[in-house]
């Protein structure tokens, strides 16, 4: 008949620091492979669209500015993304990355949940076209 | 001990009358095409000879002009799967119920009725399983002509609540209840504190995943299926990958195979530790709950280091794995599992020695070997009652072919044994992970996978932490699957709860429920109903017990 | 006693606000110690206070089909019991304000008022969980009450009086813990039963019956039950400290002795699994009563050999 088999643990814990991580006052380092903020660079992208096709959440949108000149603009819908990393896996040209440092992506409103990546003039061109079609 | 050859031959002998319509499309698979009026004879032939167990009943309505609606009854023994294919007419699809022979089939027959509109004649329970109470009549989600636009135009169904029989005191647990981590609805009929009847209604977390897979390509589905469940996400993805890779004729590199099982092992540890804490909490031993969950963080951190995420690791890709286990990671894993091994030994000690805890677990919720076999229990729930059902042993897959494992079995069948089994499984898994890490083969992580998968059907069975997970995958040669049927272990395990609950105190209900390690997210495509009354359509505990006694006389 | 003093005693010290805040403080300590034993951080100091304040200002929903008068009255009775009992106990280390022969018995009954009103409240509400909770609360009351009361009467026998102030004085010079160890153990475990702390928390087993008898209460009613509980914690600790730990003669002695007991109680809680209600009853009627009877026999024997009241 044994009672209180956890007494060793309970007494020891009284003299130890709690196991709770006092987030956000204390932050542990995140592992390298953490899938956080997604970024895309236009330099090597060939417009193969595999990342768009294979995204389970339809979070990526590749807008063609000039296919021959390989000018594209990528829109990433942060709120739809499930951070699975399939796009990273399937891209053969190292165009997509997910940050392991920036992962605190919650926000109080929806604005800013769509990130647009690309060369500045390309982005401007796309945004103007979008604005024009919306009016 | 029968060999696979003998098992297969035995099945062929039992199904002699249908010899001409038998096919063996590949190793360990037998398909028999039969008519609805022949079903009961075939089932009886297999059941009376105690050949295997009925694992899954799936319906299929393939597209294409000559696509025929079928009800598939999959019986498994060891690695062999015998599928009885019942051809159904489109105008009036009907098949007889097998519940007279196998009572636990009621759950899956309900699914056939509501998802395909198949008339399962004489089935004891026709109520809705997953679909909500107001789902319109005569619109079936898994039929090929299902139209969502049509659905919203129809009138909602009116479901009358079941009539209470006489003066009964019914206590509902769920859908909102502190005992449940996920929504479900249990009704316990009480006499004082003793349970005299139990029933379950599920579908609160039903997301229509099987239907959704038909609209997404093979790669996208990987991530969808991973999210069927949070604690068995890897094993779902793995079952899917095994099936699709098999259809496509792709062989996964050795290193990837082993990495998959290492992560599966870590997931099993995670799942069992989670369960342990929850079960302790249900018993009122909060201290044990807090400590076991604190220790669970260790394995979650390891998984985060390996895959980048604590839940839904997404380490599987079709054709292999995404991430490698570097020597640095290996060191971390060794340290982590060593710590866990020591803690689990401590918990084993607590679970078997702490008098107060034992008062809530020893001798409670006993399920005998016969009951477990009859009701189709799976996984640790079955192994705690002495029924050795473990896919890693019966039908080894992936790296288990190179790293065979010793399953953990016990005989007492009470709650305490279920605790012991799962804790011992954690320790056995730790040993396995060490061995795999030490002998990790060199090589590539992935193989090229075609975007279109060859037409065909396949069945993949894997051992999830809760028991056998059964995937039936069918391709029509395109970029999206034709049909994916998922049968999770909790569906069958819940049936065992209903039986072992009756006669116990109400206070033991959460513990008994927790004892089978229910995973409602996985499960929300199934339900079981049983009540302790004399209704001739329903099976009372007494009748089931009598049946069991007669059968084993 | 003049009116102002009486009002002061009832509303501020030693009963009233002092008791309630003391209760909240001890509740926080209990939760914090429990958390630290479980390797957690635990609530911050104002948590229980914030909880009660929040509950007080929330809407109270009276379920249909209940007797509204009873529904609203019972929480008040539940908190009135301990508040009244406090007038007869050395709360705060200052000798009991009121005192008369036999006030020990009255106090013990006043302390049970909380449990009885909780049981009645649960039965009144009539929802599945409340009914089960009420049944369990009252069943548990019948199981620990006898041994607990006898354990408290042990010191009364030793002191030769049924008056708390006299027992307190007697205990001041005789450490009854040494003379009646079994009684002490039964008293403290009985207190755990009274307060429905683990392992005796079957009446409000959240994983089985949501919140037991108090399931349908919200707002002010729940706050009052909550306060009644915390007040009982303080009073129970005071009584046991006064009787067994050498009397409560000064505020410092009061603080230290009750804190020591609280520490023990919190430590005990962390190691226990919840018992089923039938196991609780079985435990108390078999071992609890037996232990207390043994203690009493020893007392009689000792007393008779010394030519005390029973010889």
How would you explain this protein's 3D organization?
The complex is a heterotrimer of chains A (135), B (553) and C (311). Chain A is α+β, with helices and mostly antiparallel strands and 135 residues long. Chain A is built from four helices and five strands, in the order H-E-H-E-E-H-E-E-H. Chain A is elongated. The termini of chain A are far apart. The mean pLDDT of chain A is 90. Chain B has two domains: 2-201, NADH:ubiquinone oxidoreductase Nqo5 subunit (Beta Polymerase, domain 2, 2-Layer Sandwich); 209-523, Cytochrome-c3 Hydrogenase, chain B. Helix content of chain B is 41%, strand content 17%. Chain B contains 19 helices and 15 strands. Chain B has a five-stranded mixed beta sheet. The two termini of chain B are 23 Å apart. Mean pLDDT of chain B is 86; it is low at 525-545. Chain C is mainly alpha-helical and 311 residues long. Chain C has one domain. Chain C has 13 helices and no strands. Chain C has helices spanning 3-11, 16-37, 47-57, 68-85, 103-125, 128-159, 164-173, 176-179, 181-194, 206-209, 219-244, 251-270, 277-306. Chain C is globular and about 60 Å long. Chains in contact: A-B, A-C, B-C. Chains B and C meet through strand 8, helix 8, helix 9 and helix 11 of B and helix 6, helix 10 and helix 13 of C.
Descriptive terms for the model:
heterotrimer, A: 135 residues, alpha+beta, two-stranded antiparallel ribbon, 4 helices, B: 553 residues, Beta Polymerase, domain 2, Cytochrome-c3 Hydrogenase, chain B, 2 domains, 3-stranded antiparallel sheet, 15 strands
Short description:
The complex is a heterotrimer of chains A (135), B (553) and C (311). Chain A has 135 residues and is an alpha+beta fold.
Blueprint (SSEs and pairs):
The complex is a heterotrimer of chains A (135), B (553) and C (311).
Chain A: H1 7-14, E1 38-40, H2 50-54, E2 60-66, E3 71-77, H3 86-90, E4 96-98, E5 114-117, H4 120-134
Antiparallel strand pairs in A: 1-4, 2-3, 3-5
Chain B: H1 4-14, E1 22-26, E2 29-34, H2 39-48, E3 53-60, E4 69-77, E5 80-88, E6 94-96, H3 106-116, E7 119-121, H4 148-153, E8 169-173, E9 185-191, E10 194-201, H5 209-212, H6 218-226, H7 233-248, H8 254-283, H9 286-307, E11 316-317, E12 320-321, H10 327-353, H11 355-361, H12 369-375, H13 379-383, H14 391-394, H15 415-438, E13 456-464, E14 467-475, E15 481-487, H16 489-501, H17 509-515, H18 520-523, H19 541-551
Parallel strand pairs in B: 2-5, 6-7
Antiparallel strand pairs in B: 1-2, 3-4, 4-5, 8-9, 9-10, 11-12, 13-14, 14-15
Chain C: H1 3-11, H2 16-37, H3 47-57, H4 68-85, H5 103-125, H6 128-159, H7 164-173, H8 176-179, H9 181-194, H10 206-209, H11 219-244, H12 251-270, H13 277-306
């Amino acid at each position: 008949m044994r009672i209180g088999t956890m007494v060793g643990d309970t007494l020891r814990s009284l003299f130890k620091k709690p196991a709770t991580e006092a987030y956000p006052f204390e932050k542990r380092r995140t592992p390298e492979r953490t899938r956080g903020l997604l970024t895309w660079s236009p330099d090597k992208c060939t417009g193969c669209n595999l990342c768009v096709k294979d995204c389970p959440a339809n979070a990526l949108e590749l807008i063609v500015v000039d296919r021959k000149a390989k000018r594209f603009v990528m829109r990433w819908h942060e709120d739809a993304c499930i951070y699975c990393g399939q796009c990273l896996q399937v891209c053969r040209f190292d165009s997509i990355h997910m940050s392991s440092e920036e992962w605190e992506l919650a926000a109080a409103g929806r604005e800013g949940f769509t990130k647009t990546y690309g060369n500045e003039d390309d982005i401007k061109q796309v945004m103007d076209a979008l604005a024009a079609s919306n009016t | 001990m029968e060999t696979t050859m003998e098992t297969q031959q035995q099945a062929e002998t039992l199904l002699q009358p249908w010899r001409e319509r038998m096919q063996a499309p590949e190793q360990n698979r037998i398909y028999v095409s039969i008519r609805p009026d022949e079903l009961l004879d075939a089932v009886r032939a297999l059941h009376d000879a105690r050949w295997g167990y009925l694992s899954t009943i799936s319906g299929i309505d393939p597209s294409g002009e000559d696509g025929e609606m079928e009800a598939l009854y999959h019986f498994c023994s060891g690695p062999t799967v015998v599928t009885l294919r019942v051809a159904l007419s489109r105008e009036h699809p009907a098949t007889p119920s097998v519940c007279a022979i196998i009572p636990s089939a009621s759950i899956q027959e309900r699914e056939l009725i509501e998802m395909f509109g198949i008339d399962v004649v004489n089935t004891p329970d026709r109520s809705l399983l997953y679909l909500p109470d107001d789902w319109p009549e005569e619109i079936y989600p898994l039929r090929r002509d299902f139209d969502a636009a049509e659905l919203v135009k129809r009138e909602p169904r009116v479901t009358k609540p079941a009539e209470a029989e006489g003066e009964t005191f019914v206590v509902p647990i769920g859908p909102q209840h502190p005992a449940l981590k996920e929504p479900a609805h249990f009704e316990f009929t009480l006499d004082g504190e003793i349970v005299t009847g139990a029933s379950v209604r599920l579908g609160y977390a039903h997301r229509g995943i099987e239907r959704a897979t038909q609209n997404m390509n093979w790669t996208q589905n990987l991530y969808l299926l991973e999210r069927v469940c949070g604690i068995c996400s890897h094993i779902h993805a793995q079952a899917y990958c095994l099936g699709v890779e098999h259809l496509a004729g792709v062989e996964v590199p050795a290193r990837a195979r082993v990495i998959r099982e290492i992560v599966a092992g870590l997931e099993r540890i995670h799942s069992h530790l989670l369960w342990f804490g929850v079960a302790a909490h249900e018993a009122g031993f909060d201290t044990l709950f807090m400590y076991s969950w604190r220790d669970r963080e260790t394995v979650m951190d390891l998984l985060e280091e390996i895959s980048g995420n604590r839940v839904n690791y997404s380490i599987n890709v079709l054709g292999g794995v995404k991430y490698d286990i570097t020597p640095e990671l290996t060191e971390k894993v060794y340290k982590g599992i060593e710590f866990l091994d020591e803690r689990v030994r401590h918990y084993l000690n607590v679970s078997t020695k702490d008098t107060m805890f034992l008062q809530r677990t020893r001798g409670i919720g006993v399920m005998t070997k016969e009951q477990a076999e009859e009701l189709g229990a799976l996984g640790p729930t079955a192994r705690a009652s002495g029924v050795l059902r473990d896919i890693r042993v019966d039908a080894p897959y992936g790296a288990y072919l190179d790293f065979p494992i010793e399953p953990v079995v016990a005989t007492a069948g009470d709650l305490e044994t279920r605790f012991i089994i799962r804790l011992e499984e954690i320790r056995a898994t730790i040993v396995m992970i060490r061995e795999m890490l030490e002998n990790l083969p060199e090589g590539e992580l992935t193989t090229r996978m075609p975007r279109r998968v060859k037409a065909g059907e396949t069945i993949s069975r894997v051992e999830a932490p809760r028991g056998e997970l059964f995937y039936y995958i069918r391709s029509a040669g395109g970029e999206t699957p034709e049909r994916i049927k998922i049968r999770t272990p909790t569906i069958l395990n819940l049936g065992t709860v209903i039986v072992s609950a009756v006669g116990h105190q109400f206070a033991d209900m959460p513990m008994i429920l927790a004892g089978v390690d229910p995973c409602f997210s996985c499960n929300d495509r199934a339900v079981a109903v049983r009540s302790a009354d004399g209704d001739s359509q329903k099976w009372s505990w007494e009748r089931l017990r009598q049946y069991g006694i007669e059968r084993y006389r | 006693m003049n009116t102002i003093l009486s009002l002061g005693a009832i509303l501020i010290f030693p009963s009233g606000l002092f008791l309630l805040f003391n209760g909240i403080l001890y509740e926080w300590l209990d939760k914090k110690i429990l958390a630290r034993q479980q390797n957690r951080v635990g609530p911050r100091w104002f948590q229980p206070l914030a909880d009660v304040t929040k509950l007080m200002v929330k809407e109270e929903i009276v379920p249909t089909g209940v007797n509204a008068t009873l529904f609203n009255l019972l929480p008040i009775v539940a908190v009135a019991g301990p508040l009244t009992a406090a007038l007869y106990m050395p709360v705060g280390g200052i000798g009991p304000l009121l005192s008369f022969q036999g006030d020990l018995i009255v106090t013990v009954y006043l302390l049970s008022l909380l449990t009885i009103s909780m049981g009645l409240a649960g039965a009144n509400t009539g929802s599945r969980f409340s009914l089960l909770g009420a049944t369990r609360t009252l069943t548990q009351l019948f199981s620990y009450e006898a041994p607990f009361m006898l354990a408290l009467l042990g010191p009364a026998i030793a002191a030769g009086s049924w008056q708390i102030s006299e027992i307190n004085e007697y205990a001041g010079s005789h450490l009854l813990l040494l003379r009646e160890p079994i009684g002490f153990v039964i008293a403290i475990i009985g207190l755990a039963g009274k307060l429905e702390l683990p392992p005796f928390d079957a009446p409000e087993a959240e994983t089985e019956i949501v919140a037991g008898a108090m399931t349908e209460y919200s707002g002010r009613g729940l706050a009052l039950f909550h306060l009644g509980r915390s007040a009982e914690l303080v009073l129970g600790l005071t009584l046991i400290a006064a009787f067994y730990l050498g009397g409560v003669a000064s505020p410092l002695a009061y603080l230290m002795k009750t804190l020591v007991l609280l520490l023990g109680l919190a430590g005990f809680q962390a190691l226990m699994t919840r018992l089923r209600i039938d196991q609780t009853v079985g435990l108390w009627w078999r071992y609890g009563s037996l232990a207390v009877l043994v203690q009493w026999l020893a007392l009689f024997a000792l007393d008779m050999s010394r030519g005390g009241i029973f010889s």
